[in-house]
Every structure is written in C-alpha cells, then in structure tokens.
Design a protein that fits this description.
Elements (H helix, E strand, L loop, with lengths): L2 H11 L3 E6 L11 E6 L4 H14 L3 E4 L5 E3 L4 E7 L6 E5 L5 E6 L4 H11 L1 E2 L11 H7 L2 E2 L2 E2 H4 E7 L5 E5 L4 E3 L2 E3 L6 E11 L2 H18 L5 E5 L9 H7 L6 E2 L2 E3 L6 E4 L5 H19 L8 E3 L4
Parallel strand pairs: 2-5, 3-5, 4-20
Antiparallel strand pairs: 1-2, 6-7, 7-15, 8-15, 9-10, 11-12, 11-15, 13-14, 16-19, 17-18, 18-19
Length: 307
C-alpha cells in the first residue's frame, strides 16, 4: 500500500484509520496479524467514497462488524478491513396497519436489539440473546439458535455495491442457507437490516431473554476468548456432542484448546496464534472424518495470509 494511496484514504476519511494495525487487538479470539489498513467509516457517504476508491485502485477489502466468528491468519490481511462499528443506528417504526419494524445498521450489536425488545415488549428476536455479533455479521452467518434463524425475522436488507450504489432486497428474494447467506451482489456491503416484530407482554419477553442468556452462560466458556461455535451442526447432530464422544474435549495445540465445557468451542487459553487454532480445527476434522465418517464444516470465517 503506497504512500499516495494512504494519503488519499486519509483525505477521504478525515481520520478513523489505523495503518499496519494488529488485528489481534480486535478479534474476539485475540489472534491475527496486521492489516494494511483498518478503516472506520462513520456514515454511508464515507463508506460510498471508500468503496469507490478501493474499486478504482483494485484494493481488496473485507467488511467486519463485531469481530466474532472470525479468525485472521497470522500473516494478516493485505488490503483494507472496513470496520462498521460506528454505523450502529437503529429505529423502531410502525406502519398504518400496525405492523412493527426494527431497522438497524450493520454495525449495531444484536444485544442492543435484544435489549430494546425486552424493554418495549417486542417478540421475534429473543433467540439472539447472548449472541455477541453485529447485525451485518448475523445476516452473513444467518445466525440462529433455539430453532430460529435471522432469516425468520428479516423483512428486508439494504446493500451497497462496490460502485457505491444502494439497493434494498425483500427477504423473499434473498438466498439463505444453514449458517450462510449468499450475497446477491459480489463484494457488496450490508448497510442495514429491517426486522418484523410483534407486540408481546414485556415480562414474558424479559423472562425469555433472561433464560436464554442464563443457558448460554451456563453452557458456553464465556470466561475465555473464543470465536463462538467453530463447526456447523452436521445433519442435525450437535457438533459439540460428536467432539465430546470422541474424547476431544481438552485437546490443546499451543495456546488453543477445545473447551472442556462445550466441545464446539475452541478457546484461547494464553497467547494462542491463528495457526494453533487452525491446526486444532484440522485435527478435529480429521479425527471426526476418520472415526465417524462425518466431515465437519467450519462455521467460523477465516481471512488473511499465513506467515
């Protein structure tokens, strides 16, 4: 990344840029090499200008929300990481027929939406309680729990393409899969999502949210740094149960360890490197394939280069 490009980037963004930034400072797992640049657009206009510049200069980029469900390799990322945490506005509206809609920008944390639902007595997003991601990341992962997925609550989605053009897509025109969303436009960035909610008894919503958070705290190793669930559940079988049955809980490579509390979590028990985590993932996959004939597919997203 040459000096001229850096100066142009600074001119467009007016600050909010970190060059050669160690991404281990940001990822929930606490691993990752340096990105050429980490940029935090504060609004759609800045994002539009940024995407136009990156497209013109043919610079690779990745949009990131809350840095969960993500592993950055130790060699870092050659290009620009677009941090969306400052694009976090959300608003509740009601149409003439009485239907309720919650529109939230991509950088909004799911916990903020769940808290609003509990405060206002809104039902539809309780299953997101305890999921540590952002709206954009939850859509990309089609995050889910307790029999529901993001697509079940989604009404529409607004994207910005690499040319800076915005387009809103009704949920019915979008392609969702298990823990995966197929972007309808290559290199597009999620701007906001609108969810359809319903009025409910406030106490009932609060109790449900509280209970889900309690269960997550009880079952998940929240005392350690992790990237959430590592593997997708194959054919309805809990990946954690398969890993447990093979005696892999507690298996450790370097600073990365299979949680003894939940087999589908890999935790950073001290100075883990991305290669430790990825080696542990491959070791688990090989063992499960050999012993069970099941190919575990990673749920976490991996980006960047090896050292």
């Amino acid at each position: 990344m040459n000096e001229t490009f850096q100066q142009e980037l600074e001119r467009l963004m007016g600050g909010g840029i970190l060059f050669d930034e160690p991404l281990s400072r940001h990822t929930s797992m606490g691993v990752g090499g340096c990105a050429d640049a980490l940029v935090f657009p504060g609004n759609r206009e800045q994002l539009r200008d940024l995407l136009s510049l990156l497209k013109r200069e043919r610079i690779p980029y990745v949009p990131i929300g809350n840095w969960t469900n993500l592993i950055v390799r130790d060699g870092g990322f050659r290009g620009v990481i677009i941090g969306l945490k400052q694009m976090n506005d959300f608003k509740l509206s009601q149409d003439p027929s009485g239907d309720l809609f919650l529109q939230a920008e991509a950088g909004t944390s799911l916990s903020d939406l769940v808290n609003l639902s509990a405060t206002e007595g809104l039902t539809g997003l309780e299953f997101c309680a305890g999921i540590p991601g952002s709206v954009g990341g939850a859509v990309i992962m089609n995050a889910g729990a307790y029999g529901r997925e993001i697509k079940d609550a989604l009404e529409k989605l607004t994207l910005m393409d690499a040319r800076g053009m915005e387009r809103t897509w009704p949920c019915g025109q979008l392609q969702f899969e298990y823990r995966h969303f197929v972007l309808p436009e290559k290199d597009a960035v999620i701007l906001d999502a609108t969810f359809r909610l319903s009025r409910s008894n406030k106490e009932i919503v609060r109790e449900k949210v509280t209970e889900i958070r309690r269960i997550r705290k009880e079952k998940h190793p929240l005392e350690y740094r992790s990237a959430g669930s590592v593997f997708k559940n194959p054919q309805g079988q809990p990946a954690g149960k398969i890993i447990d049955e093979l005696g892999l809980k507690g298996l450790q490579i370097g600073g990365a360890k299979v949680s003894e509390k939940h087999g589908n979590f890999i935790v950073n028990v001290g100075q883990a490197k991305a290669r430790d985590i990825l080696d542990l993932i491959r070791t688990i996959q090989d063992k499960v394939l050999r012993e069970k004939g099941i190919l575990l597919e990673a749920e976490v997203i991996t980006i960047g280069e090896d050292l």
